[in-house]
Amino acid sequence: MSDELPPLVDTHCHLVLLDERGLLQQALEGAAAAGVDEIISVGLNLEDSDRNRLIAERHPGVYFTCGWHPHEKAAPDTQQMEALAALLRHPKAVAVGEVGLDLFFRPGYHEVPLAVQQRSFRSMLELARDAGKPVLIHDRDAHDEVLAAVRAVAGSRGVMHCFSGDADFARSCAAEGFIASFSGIVTFSRADGIQDAARAVADDCYVVETDSPFLSPAPERGKPNLPERVAITAAAVATLRGESVEDVRTATTRTAHRVLGIGTPTTAEARA
After folding, report:
1. Are 216 and 223 in contact (CB under 8 A)?
2. How many CA atoms lie within 13 A of 14 on its CB side?
3. Quick one: DSSP state of residue 29?
4. Selecting from 1.10.260.40, 3.40.50.300, 3.20.20.140, 1.10.730.10, what CATH number does the domain 8-263 have?
5. Dist CA 226 CA 214 (whole Å)
6. Count of CB atoms within 10 A of residue 165's CB?
7. What would the pLDDT profile of 53-80 be if each residue is shown by its tens digit?
8. Which three-class secondary structure state does DSSP give residue 206?
9. What is the DSSP code string of 81-147?
10. Terminus-to-terminus CA distance in the chain, angstroms?
């Protein structure tokens, strides 16, 4: 029996942003060394989604998503929607994201009116429904509004990216077909509600992510995040749940494969 840890999936990172910082090759090599076999690189708009496609085409184990971030100042027009739909037909396109709602308004962060965000989000939920794809949702200070939006589009399912709610919200999300994705925030000292959610969710109702280059987990806070650090988050979740790192890595990889439609059974899964 191998002493190696089971592989991991970083279910949400931004390889385009790492590439812009000259960190792409380092990120991919570090991920491989840490046993992160698959990376989901997430689109923020049409141009960014297409750039993620190019990276995914060049690198085995990298997949991409097509999305329209809530910070986009206008909802996508007909041509942009058609282009996103075409991108979603690519064999390495696995989800619609990053999409959602952000009610943390602040000059220099974002000031997009809620009504504009809601139009964009509805368009993306319908795009995912029509393509049969899951959705990666950005939800900042908008729990009730996000749940209302996904309930309005039958068949919506996917991942609550960078989960920021508590255990009750995780259960509400699961009831609507959405699993929680825990980021480096789960390692922060003032994240009690998120940590409670990590303890409470079912084994098949959560995954892990980096949101790289953002949200580097403790003790790496303040540094550009890298996909390899999803291993730190997985280990922190294991501690919170009183489970082994091996079990958490196996469970999150299995769930990521199921929800995102990627991968093949791992050796660890075959032994289970």
Report:
1. yes
2. 22
3. H
4. 3.20.20.140
5. 8
6. 19
7. 999 999 999 999 999 999 999 999 999 9
8. strand
9. HHHHHHHHTSTTEEEEEEEEEE---BTTTB---HHHHHHHHHHHHHHHHHHT--EEEEEES-HHHHH
10. 13
Q: Can you tell me whether residue 179 is helix, strand or coil? A: strand
Distance CA 95, CA 138 (A): 13
Residue 270 tokens, joined: 């075959």
pTM listed for this prediction: 0.95
Confidence of residue 208 (pLDDT cuts 50, 70, 90): very high
Cis check: omega of the bond before 227, within 30 degrees of 0: no
99, 180, 93, 103: which is closest to 135 by C-alpha?
99
Name the token pair of 27.
């990120």
**Structure tokens belonging to residue 90:** 């690519």
